[in-house]
Amino acid sequence: MDKIEKLANIIKNSSYTVFFGGAGTSTDSGIKDFRGKDGLYKTDFKGYRPEEVLSIDFFSEHRDLFNEYVTEKMSIENVKPNKGHYALVKLEKLGKLKSIITQNIDNLHQEAGSTNVLELHGTLKDWYCLSCGKRDTKTFDCPCGGIVRPKVTLYGEMLDENVTSSAIFEIKKADTLIIAGTSLTVYPAAYYIRYFQGKDLVIINADATQYDSDASLVINDNFANTMEATINFL
């Protein structure tokens, strides 16, 4: 039995499957990851490190540069879901996938049609005025003159407590946890995996991770190809 068929069997026999995704789930949609070979963090922006630009302090002090970076380097305007996102939608419709936990801020899971999505870091599809609360799907100049920001967690800010609590609840409840597109070396991915108490841990990632030895199944391939192929066995 090959690994794809084994993954399909794990999903078939699971009563509560949860999916946890990182930046690698969106690269097939044309979105750069952060720490990969050609990731966003490899190139400075006008003399600033990207991690600095994406901090709450930088946003407060250099809002124009922050908005310029997000617009130029992180735009999701014309980005579409990939075949992996649509495979997860099919799993949900089959009643096999109960929830998706994502570190991404691109809204691609929802655009593909997934309904139970927990966004740990928020989304670039939601911008709001800190003064009057006006909202839009992209940055805008608010008529009230207030400061507009995206609903994302920046460096130096705490994650949304309600979202993190829900994510932990889902992981604890799962008997199968599929993790894809993350090296599991950075917070919060490496932290949340500790809450998994179920039977099958599946890791789908191009490179090895520190948790491979704990997994029931490790697939060193990209997310989109793996999930599309798995659907064919269900």
Question: Can you walk me through this structure?
Answer:
The protein has 234 residues and is an alpha/beta fold. The protein has two domains: 1-30 and 80-121 and 159-234, 3-Layer(aba) Sandwich (Rossmann fold); 32-75 and 127-153, no CATH class. Helix content is 31%, strand content 18%. Strand 4 and strand 5 form a beta hairpin. Helix 5 (83-93) runs parallel beside helix 9 (223-231). The longest helix is centred in the C-terminal third of the chain and has 13 residues, at 161-173. The protein is globular. The chain starts with a helix and ends with a helix.
Q: What is the count of distinct domains?
A: 2
CATH homolog superfamily of the largest domain: TPP-binding domain
What is the CATH architecture annotation of the largest domain? 3-Layer(aba) Sandwich
Query: How many strands in all?
Result: 9
Short structural description:
This protein has helices spanning 3-12, 50-53, 56-61, 63-73, 83-93, 108-112, 161-173, 189-192, 223-231, and strands at residues 17-21, 97-102, 117-119, 122-129, 135-136, 148-152, 176-180, 200-204, 217-219.
